[in-house]
Amino acid sequence: MSTAPLPATPDLPPSTVDAATGHLRDVLAIAIEHGPGQRALVVYDTRTGLARALLAAYRRNLPDAEFVDFDSVAADQVLARFRQLAPKDPVVLVQSTNFRLEAFRIRVELFKLGLKVIEHVHLSRMPGVQGEHYIDALAYDPAYFRGVGRALKSRIDTAPGARICGGGEELVFASRFEPAKLNVGDYSEMHNVGGQFPIGEVFTEALDLEAVNGRAQIHVFGDTAYLSNRPATPVTIVVERGRVVGTENATPEFQRVLDIIRADEGEVWVRELGFGMNRAFTRERRVDDIGTYERMCGIHLSLGAKHGVYPKPGFKRKDARYHIDVFAVTDAVWLGEERVYADGAWTLREP
User: Is the separation of the CB atoms in 181 and 195 below 8 Å?
Assistant: First the structure.
């Protein structure tokens, strides 16, 4: 069931397949809790070097699984394979773009079937050395992700507010926060198991969105092509009562993003406050896919009224259209009076 062809990309070095094999072995065993003898289904394509490296790693880790080449079968055959699985069987999706099955929203529908999901998506956006960064980001250290993740959630859920300091600017959240959500590979208290990989994030937003004021320097933002756009000079956003009311050093593409949001939503809200935890991604070590780079070890915010996780009075789903990730220059993060981020790393441990 092929789609528009992608330009050929070379294979990644053999060492990356070895690394991916080890990382995914841990993901399968620890995060997904998949054991020997259990069924598994891997749906893949081979359009990019990164997809082929991941496929090779899954073949090593899941020798008894069923492997289906998405480009060689019809949609109804893929759907039939899904429905032959039993609840708690894992499905792995290795996608150079993202698989389309008409109106079938793959991850949502797989969760409805009670299946575990490991989704690798938009791999074509991460060519060359970026594919190696992506594989590094698959490393699963449960003590770090779960320990620091839980510690962050504990602090966020009780903090009276927060300050994000970077590049000489400060953004102040003078509000308590929504209950923080974890994406740390621990699904023991969740209905669904799995999601998009790599992982590593804790996120929330202010209970009172209008209590967010100050300035932040943005070193990367998601542009209109869903790519990580890095201005030569960070863009400074000026936030008043939870809205972006001004900028300094805005590039034409950043201004375009703001203009699109304002045209459709009237104003530019700051909603999500994301605590990225994945140490494979930094300000300098990036990938072009914004949905993957979102895990970067540092702070990201969302611009636009859309945030389906936290319903707020006055925000109607049909009118809230945009959720644009932007990444703040971060030197220090304070939750209440406690500094929780310094020297490019989280300083907490499990409470």
Answer: no
Q: Residue 4: what pLDDT? A: 54
Cβ distance 170 to 214 under 8 Å?
Answer: yes
H/E element, 56 = helix 49-61
Structure-token pair, residue 206: 């202010």
Q: What is the arithmetic mean of pLDDT over 298-327?
A: 94
Q: pLDDT band for position 2 (50/70/90)? A: very low
The span from the CA of 220 to the CA of 228, in Å, is 6
**Which letter does DSSP use for residue 343 in this model?**
T
* Chain segment 10-58, per-residue pLDDT in tens: 999 999 999 999 999 999 999 999 988 899 999 999 999 999 999 999 9
- Give the integer Cα–Cα distance in Å for 181 and 203: 5
- From residue 338, give the alpha-carbon distance in Å to each of 110, 152, 160, 203, 346: 41, 11, 11, 18, 12
How far apart are the C-alpha atoms of 164 and 225, rounded to whole Å?
27
Q: How far apart are CA 312 and CA 290, in angstroms?
A: 25
User: What distance in Å separates the CA atoms of residue 163 and residue 210, rounded to the nearest whole number?
Assistant: 15
What length does the chain have? 351
Distance CA 120, CA 145 (A): 19
**Rg of the chain taking only CA atoms, in angstroms:** 20
| 194-196 sheet: strands from edge to edge | 66-69, 41-44, 90-94, 116-120, 194-196
Residue type, 335: L
Q: What is the pTM of this model?
A: 0.95
Residue 169, φ and ψ in degrees, nearest 5: -110, 160
The 3 state secondary structure assigned to 291-337 is HHHCCECEEEEEECCCCCCCCCCCCCCCCCCCCEEEEECCCEEEECC
Instruction: Write out pLDDT tens, residues 229-248.
Output: 999 999 999 999 999 999 99
Q: How far apart (Å, rounded) are the C-alpha atoms in residues 182 and 152? A: 9
Q: 67: burial class by Cβ within 10 Å (0-12, 13-18, 19+)?
A: middle
